[in-house]
Amino acid sequence: MSRRGERLAIDPIACDAHGLCAELLPELIARDDWDYPLVDGRPIPPELAAHARRAAAACPTLALRLAAARERAAPGGRRS
Amino acid sequence: MSDAALPRLLADPAGAVTVDLGGHLALHGLPALGRHAAAGLADAAQRAGLHGRGGAAFPTARKLRALAGARGPLRLRSLAVVANGVEAEPASRKDRVLLSRSPHLVLDGLQLAALALGAEQTWIAVPAGAADVRDALGTALAERASAGRDPVPVTVASVPPRFVAGEERSLVHLLNGGPPIPTAARPWERGVGGSPTLVQNVETLAHLALIAARGPAWFRAVGDPGEPGSTLVTVSGAVPAAEVREVATGTPLHELVAGPFQALLAGGYAGGWLSPTAAAGARLLRADLVPLGATIGCGALVALPEGVCPVAETARLVRWLAGESAGQCGPCVFGLDAIAGALESLCAPRRPRRDPLPDLHRWCGDVAGRGACGHPDGVVRLVRSTVRVFAAELDDHARRGACDRCAAGPVLPLPPPHPPLPLRTARPRAGDGASSRRVA
């Protein structure tokens, strides 16, 4: 099931810092001082792919998604 | 006009008046606006090495090609072109000067791009309240209507002077009837009225008009081979008189700002400070300025006078920039507010209770790259340059609080605060029971 070369992407406008993603996927998602998620854009390790999908599905504002690792980040949106 | 003669954009033998259509045609010898093929115009822009003059320095040819490809194979989609003269950067006046001096060059560039792409509509966005620009454009558009020089309809849009309103997605959102804040949509895919939209700075369009008429080689006869042409700069601060000049790219900064000054802010208020030594060795080139942590941006150079506190001045700029956030992205809303607060705490009468510098470093790292637009990144560039250039002053403030010079300012001019946009409401931290904060 786990597709290769996916990374986490956050829509910073939609994200409302509910924090569910960081609860569900602390291995890949840290929080800044204001509880907004920090991701590093690296490919998701295969063993965490299912957890990552669950975290994306749990986001109340649909701000977290899995993007192709090669997909160009939105302007200015490197880290999110 | 010989190939290397400057000024080009601001050429006007009669002095600081608007060049009318007759004078424009005589000065530039521009033929009737031909219908260039989009590919040909893009190739000319590429051979000229034209980059956007609004701040991001995006290659103009790539934008033109993206738009040419956006119509689809059957060319069913309509396109739009927007000339961006919003110029919301407080330290820049070059777009206003260009529009009030040489409106026909900008309007020719707008028409050339629209005709080449087959666009049905064009807009020219100008700052609300700029009467000189409105008058010059109104007169120019009337002259052009009589002469039949605007085959594609032009609409003038007055834009409220908010900092992020000049960002191209903000501008498209505003033209679509929304508030001037960035959206996730890319204008070249879905812009004004849902049509793929070319957004170009007004100076970029003026250069494009001259390149179409005189060719890429003529454009490259001036300036640095790597970043060719002429460019408009606004020089202000510790100079005899603030002024807009058209200069060759690659001009040494010391020829633009004679000094003496305490530091030079290159790239506007979201640019970067340069020490006098760094400024003395740098030219007006991205290749020189970006490695130094500054930028060209829209060509604004601000010289900080001796005798004022750089920490206090930067704190004021950062507080103003934090207030100019579109209020959409949490890291920008809360991060910039925190960074401004840390800088302000360094200038309080008593020394800060705890050293804010470690937080300042961490927040810069946390905020950079995490907005929908580049606004937080620009503020981080300014703060990091402050840390680099004024490390001793920052340490001194962290140990003792406000310095003797803190009260000497303010010297860098800022517009009054704007009415707040509908902004993000903070969620309480999990478990701390705090009520939601409204950020204004």
List strands and helices in order, with pairings.
The complex is a heterodimer of chains A (80) and B (440).
Chain A: E1 6-10, H1 20-24, E2 30-31, E3 37-38, H2 49-58, E4 64-68
Antiparallel strand pairs in A: 1-4, 2-3
Chain B: H1 21-28, H2 38-48, H3 60-70, E1 80-84, H4 94-101, H5 103-117, E2 121-127, H6 131-147, E3 154-159, H7 168-175, E4 197-201, H8 202-214, H9 216-220, E5 230-237, E6 243-248, H10 253-256, E7 263-266, E8 272-274, H11 276-280, H12 286-289, E9 300-304, H13 310-323, H14 330-346, H15 357-367, H16 375-389, H17 391-400
Parallel strand pairs in B: 1-2, 1-4, 2-3, 5-9
Antiparallel strand pairs in B: 5-6, 7-8, 7-9
Architecture overview:
The complex is a heterodimer of chains A (80) and B (440). With 80 residues, chain A is α+β, with helices and mostly antiparallel strands. Chain A has one domain (6-68): 2-Layer Sandwich (Alpha-Beta Plaits). Chain A contains two helices and four strands. Chain A has helices at residues 20-24, 49-58; strands at 6-10, 30-31, 37-38, 64-68. Chain B is an alpha/beta fold. Chain B is built from 17 helices and nine strands. Chain B has a five-stranded mixed sheet with strand order 6-5-9-7-8. In chain B, strands 3-2-1-4 form a four-stranded parallel sheet, with helices on both faces. Chain B is globular and about 65 Å long. The termini of chain B are far apart. Chain A binds chain B through residues 11-13, 15-19, 32-36, 38, 74-80, and chain B through 182-184, 328-332, 334-335, 338, 363, 366, 368-377, 424, 426-427, 429-430.
